[in-house]
Amino acid sequence: MNEVRVIKAENISKLYRLGQVGTGSMFHDVNRWWHIMRGKEDPYLRVGEVNDRTRKGSSDYVWALKDIDFEVEQGDVLGIIGRNGAGKSTLLKILSRTTAPTTGTIKVKGRIASLLEVGTGFHPELSGRDNIFMNGTILGMTRTEIKSRFDDIVDFAGIERYLDTPVKRYSSGMYLRLAFAVAAHLESEILIVDEVLAVGDYEFQKKCLGKLKVVSESEGRTVLFVSHNMQSIASLSSRLLIMNNGLVRQFRDPFEGIEFYNQENTGFDKSRFSDTAEKGLGDNDYLIINEYYLCDETGNRKSGFSSNEKIIVNLNFDVKNTDPLLTVGIGLYTAEGVNLFWSIHLEEDNPVSLHQGSHQIKILLQGLLLNEGNYKIELIAAVHNKQWIYRPEFDAPYLIFSIYRQPGLRDIWSSKRQGSLVPCVKYIK
Amino acid sequence: MIIKPRTDFFEINLREVWRYRDLMWMFIRRDFAAQYKQTVLGPLWHFIQPLFTTLIFVVVFSRIAEISTDGLPPLIFYLSGITIWNYFSSCFIATSNTFVANAYIFGKVYFPRLVMPLSVVLSNMVKFGIQFLLLISAMIWYAINGTEIHPGNSLFFIPVVLLMMACMGLGLGIIISSLTTKYRDFAVLITFGVQLLMYATPVVFPMSAVKSPDLKFWLSFNPLTPLVEAFRYALLGTGSFDAIQLVYSGIFILVLLIFGLYLFGKVEKTFMDTV
What are the extents of the domains in chain B? Predict the structure, then answer.
């Protein structure tokens, strides 16, 4: 694919005013105008703070985006990820020209069509047919263009039967199908897609992802794609933009980016265990957890292992009240939150009996199990089939650890072997 | 294409608006298709509204207040006034709402924002046409029944008046719509402002009925005054046709429109942040 730069953003910043627009803003307007008339800098551009929604700032202004630079080449699928309020939507709004940046310029080659939310411009009273034309023209197509693609659109949406029904009678899924179908058949060189796939059913989501792939790979069009679904980001994007508090980091390898993102975000970077050790881990009738950590075979505590290393989960605890069905175990999750397995100690043929008093249990995970990446390991405890003591994915204490590539493994995979597991697979003649 | 913070001093991209003419057409169609969905009388409402207003005016202003109608049958006089006034007021009110009412669309997709008010002005033109037909039918009905109706010999002037009305409504509307993005006060202002303005325009009275020179002087500052008068003059042969007044209106409207377009272009880029 020829490397043509289609988007080049330089120094993009966006300032927002917090709180109500009211009489105070009128004073600011006058003041701003007065400064600009005298050829001075806008007095409110200096005071903005970095965008962090959790902290209360002292200024009324906030930078939703701050000095962002990035480039996109033709045919790229640029995945954009970031937590809520990281500035993703602001960036897309600027790109789709629904608002202007406060500073900076973006050079764009070609038409941009955005699908920021489903069914823009759909009129509830009009039929599906009319709305295809309505929506298409809003997105910048001419009526002749739509006519020539009409059958494809209807076909893609799969709503032929409801074509002459007003869209207010549609289910939200049908609505989305129609909206996406129109947008996917646009003639634009750049397509912006923002979380629209959330509503569709699995079959349709796959269809959309497939369409986006076709659009970028064989038609050479560029797609900017925002999602919280790491799976679709990973499978679709050729590059990744991570946004955090209005700042960006660009990754040429999306997998690398996703791992970086997971390490940085969603509390996945630290173990909840150390956080809550005093606060209530002992606050149940059965257990007091004293220690929960990972180490290797030689007893070194660590949180990074190579993929062929054995991992030992150490669990030291006191049992306050015993129960024949009292059990402890672990739950393992990938960075995307997919549960790989749960395990409890009662599975064993002769399980350790958890009598009153202190216990030290080691849980052995063999090598060549997990692929490179970040994982979460939860401590599960329960009275089996009766009551959770630590409910997985809810209040269970957890640790984060990383698996690195096994040293010396032949570099047959350019980035990393696909999948979460790295079993040793034999190919026999 | 370059996306940048501030527009040049005066930036309206008429070529782009033209490229989106299909969209304008769709908006016009949508207005008509959607307006009377699930109503029994449907498009008949286009006739009912001006007709009833006219009847009320006939009763109140002609029968009770006994204001002169320049020798015309009151029904024709008021209907003609209402027809042209309605065009202006509906253009003005609908365009003055452009940003706030369409924020949900503007916030998601880019297209030249001017398409929206322009489509409003055009679709109201169609509504005007419908009401104009009503007016013509009324004139014919009166003519058949023996009332003398003399269409003016300057009928060609009607489109000019209409165009000026359109520009006036558009210019004023986009100015107000630009201001309401931040300060909703203007939206409140225009709802009764338009009503008041109607009484400062010779809609329910002819200029010839205004006797006080002072009042005449002040009314002549209203750029709509000569337009309504000229409309009646062109169509019905009564009223005044004052070239100087019309030139004044023309200049006023032109300045208003240019200022409106300037303001609109300035606001359209970032209004989503303040709306």
Answer: 14-31+42-274
